[in-house]
From TrEMBL:
It is an enzyme of class 3 (hydrolase). Gene3D superfamilies: 2-enoyl-CoA Hydratase, Chain A, domain 1. Residues 293-303 have a biased composition (Basic and acidic residues). CDD domains: S14_ClpP_2. One of its GO terms (biological process) is protein quality control for misfolded or incompletely synthesized proteins. It holds the Pfam family CLP_protease. Residues 1-16 have a biased composition (Low complexity). The active site is at S172, H197. This is ATP-dependent Clp protease proteolytic subunit. GO terms for cellular component: chloroplast thylakoid; chloroplastic endopeptidase Clp complex. It comes from Oryza meyeriana var. granulata.
Length: 303
């Protein structure tokens, strides 16, 4: 067949085209109103955030994890320690081993999952011994206001005194939790930083809905300011002025502002673990500080 004949055949019999059209579900009409309602239902509800990140922290949906998965695995490879006792050997992940010493960690953004874990640990430690202190180590850029307030309220609710220590940074909601520790037991390491600012958030929809969310975030700001006033002794006017924009502080400035009580380089005696068996610590020199203070624990071996 000649090229001219092929061209004539192609023009006479064009290939069929496929134009997909959205198909309405049975029994429903695809109207613009129904499409808008489905779009609105897919938009997550507005939330107030209290974070040092340039954009509000958005918790990402987590995929379903297999049985036996620990949320601590979000940190990557979790070290295990083996403790040898008179009854044999026992293995712990590092976070469980620290929990045994009444140490609770808040690392990373504060979201609902973080709050659930921290609240559960605080309640458990109170049930174990309501008189012994709990040591809360904070390294966080902040997060969701309601999640942070859940941790704060639990700290005030339990009978155990809660000591707080800033390692790295305690920004936004992290700074509020740092200040909420027991008076005289709020500390920071020398190279940590603290940041305070007002809450941020967003809203969309009708003007009435936006006004409702704006009113709510203003109420949250007033509530947070009163909490800072309670734990720092600063006036509301000064707190509002300082929190108008991000205010970064080194540990000394945070101490002067009333967010912490002291800056430490070495572990004080009050933060030494009691350990197991009540054996006195031998004197050690070198790093870590506090040699000869506290109580001994058999040195666990890392796996």
């Amino acid at each position: 067949m000649t090229p001219s004949a092929l061209a004539h055949l192609a023009s006479a019999s064009p290939l069929p085209t496929f134009s997909p059209k959205p198909r309405a579900r049975p029994g429903s009409a695809a109207t613009p109103g129904s499409a808008l309602r489905r779009l609105a239902a897919a938009v997550p509800p507005p939330r107030a955030y209290f974070s040092s990140s340039p954009m509000p922290y958005q918790p990402q949906p987590q995929p379903q994890q297999p049985a036996g998965y620990s949320s601590h695995q979000a940190f990557g490879l979790v070290p295990m320690v083996i403790e040898t006792t008179s009854r044999g050997e026992r293995a712990y992940d590092i976070f469980s081993r620290l929990l045994k010493e009444r140490i609770v960690l808040i690392h990373g953004p504060i979201a609902d999952e973080t709050a659930s874990l921290v609240v559960a640990q605080l309640l458990f430690l109170e049930s174990e011994n309501p008189l012994k202190p709990v040591h809360l180590y904070i390294n966080s850029p902040g997060g969701v206001v309601t999640a942070g307030l859940a941790i704060y309220d639990t700290m005030q609710y339990i009978r155990c005194p809660v000591t707080t220590l800033c390692i790295g940074q305690a920004a936004s909601m992290g700074s509020l939790l740092l200040a909420a520790g027991a008076r005289g037991e709020r500390r920071a390491l020398p190279n940590a930083r603290v940041m305070i600012h007002q809450p941020s958030g967003g809203a969309q929809g009708q003007a009435t809905d936006i006004a409702i969310q704006a009113k709510e975030i203003l109420k949250l700001r007033d509530r947070l300011n009163k909490i800072y006033q309670k734990h720092t002794g600063q006036s509301i006017d000064k707190i509002e002025q300082c929190m108008e924009r991000d205010l970064f502080m080194d540990p000394e400035e945070a101490r002067d502002w009333g967010l912490i009580d002291e800056v430490i380089e070495n572990r004080p005696a009050s933060l030494m673990p009691e350990g197991v068996g009540g054996v006195d610590l031998p004197h050690h020199s070198g790093g870590g500080g506090g040699g000869g203070r506290g109580r001994d624990v058999e040195e666990p071996s890392a796996v």
